[in-house]
Amino acid sequence: MDAPNNTQNNVPQLIDINKLTPQAKEQAQQLAVNVDIKDSQSILQYGVQAQSNISAFSDTILTQVKTKDAGYIGDSLMNLGQSVRELKIDKIGGGGFFSRVPLLGNFVNSVKRFINRYEKVSTQIERIVDELDKARMQLIKDITMLDTLYQKNHEYLADLDLYIAAGQLKLNRVYAEELPEIEKTVAATADPADAQKLHDYKQMVHRFEKKLHDLKLSRTISIQTAPQIRLIQNNDQLLVEKIQSSILNTIPLWKNQVVIAISIFRQNKALALQKEITKTTNELLTKNSEMLKAGSIETAKENERGIVEIETLKKVNNDLITTIEETLAIQKEGKVKRAEAEVELVKLENELKTKLNAVKNA
Question: Which residues form a coiled coil (predicted)?
Fold first, then answer.
């Protein structure tokens, strides 16, 4: 809706009224007709409602930035990473098992100890996931709410454009018709009272011009607010995506890997135990069964080939941890950007309030 920096009767034309919709153009013309330059209250109240909406709206956005501290989400993700680290898959069954003779009691107790440790960690993770899911739902609500604020800001901007366009029309008439008429009367009568009226009228025109300038400043604030809202929304959306990735991908994958680790551990234990049983059975046979004994041992050895190595599981677990750490880095960066946005908004709000106070006290 901005127009080129042209002027008409020395009045800056920020809004090109010819680019307004027919309805908006008619509203601007009606507003211009209703403005009484000689009435101080008319000037004082001109565009106040639109300015008040912008001021209140800016406070609302600033509040959103101040309260939008997603640090607790980052803490939850960090706790999630620590919980994953606590369950050391590569320690399942303890080290050096295959260097000693396996016993059935050791096999059962080793698995039980690992499962008990997993259940404790799993409980912690489920609690963290619940917290993250609640945070995700709140962020989704915030994104919808910010869409509403964005639309309101657009509406406030349209109101300001109407008042600015109407003010331009009024000033054009003042300089083209009303002011020359008064000057003509003063020149013809040379009456000091008429001269005073002219001076008073020019002062009122000056006040109206200052009022129109304040509306233009409010318009700039409204324009700057739009990308700020989108920035907050984008940060919220990134958080939602990361939380969803953790809940829907990272956690289930981690649980699957635990199940796989336990299964492989049990397979290795069973194979080792079967090897010992075979060895013991062969000792009970007569020495004439040497070929059968040798064949059983070779079969057992062959069965042990091709088992998935524990190093693979360790790499998968490390990759999961790296994913979470990268997520935390992104969250940290988002938090810094929000802090910067908050400082900038506070600065803009203070500048606006200082300007409004200066206008009020002028």
Answer: 329-358
